[in-house]
């Protein structure tokens, strides 16, 4: 195949699958901070689609749509992280809430309620829910990010897996994440599963659970705060050892 023929084929693939870019962009938009613009996502996705068209090899087994979809979604999320829409206050607020939940739980020996966390922070329940909403709407999270800025054990450990000590810490983090999620109240586990595993947005999760989108946001935020506190504690323990 001549280079001009390959270029023409790439252009055809890009034109054919631009609707895929738009679908992914609009689906992700429901999971991202309000300041994110759909056109920014589409632009990043279009570039990823072009790159996917250039690199796709059908002999690897995956369909082009599957291959391109993964690349497009990843590029859009990378663009959001690059632009860093989240104010520093979002991380600070989530950390404060996590610390309050953890303090109550250490005293009570059980999962803290929203009312107890609010009391620990010295705010009323409405203010507490507003803090959760603002912190979670301001940014996107991966589970690894919950350890906290500068404390992300999995991302900060260099190497290709050849070092047994490195792999031990990586395995420890995975186990800590699994244990922290398993310790969450059932409703919070459901929301995380629907959000991260099923990739539903908050409105869709609300429809599944029969609650409002605002309520899902509160549950999601509280789950993230609990996880962040648990994983930060694990990270401090690893550092001390």
Structural write-up:
The structure is a single chain. The chain is an all-alpha fold. Helices cover 74% and strands 0% of the residues. It is built from eleven helices and no strands. It has helices at 3-29, 38-55, 64-83, 88-108, 114-121, 125-137, 153-156, 164-182, 186-197, 202-209, 213-240. The radius of gyration is 21 Å and the shape is elongated. Mean pLDDT is 78; it is low at 1-7 and 147-162.
Layout of helices and strands:
Blueprint: H1 3-29, H2 38-55, H3 64-83, H4 88-108, H5 114-121, H6 125-137, H7 153-156, H8 164-182, H9 186-197, H10 202-209, H11 213-240
Helix pairs in contact: 1-2, 1-3, 2-3, 4-5, 4-6, 4-11, 5-6, 6-11, 8-11, 9-11, 10-11
Keywords:
mainly alpha; 241 residues; 11 helices; elongated
Nutshell version of this structure?
With 241 residues, this protein is mainly α. It is 74% helix and 0% strand.
Number of helices: 11
User: What is the 3D shape?
Assistant: elongated
Total number of β-strand segments? 0
Mean pLDDT across all amino acids: 78
The secondary-structure class comes to mainly alpha
Taking all Cα atoms into account, the compactness measure Rg is 21 Å
Q: Helical amount among residues, as a percent range? A: over 70%
Percent range for β-strand residues: under 5%
Low-confidence stretches: 1-7, 147-162
Span between N and C termini? 59 Å
Q: Please summarize the sheet with the most strands.
A: none
- The ordered H/E elements are HHHHHHHHHHH
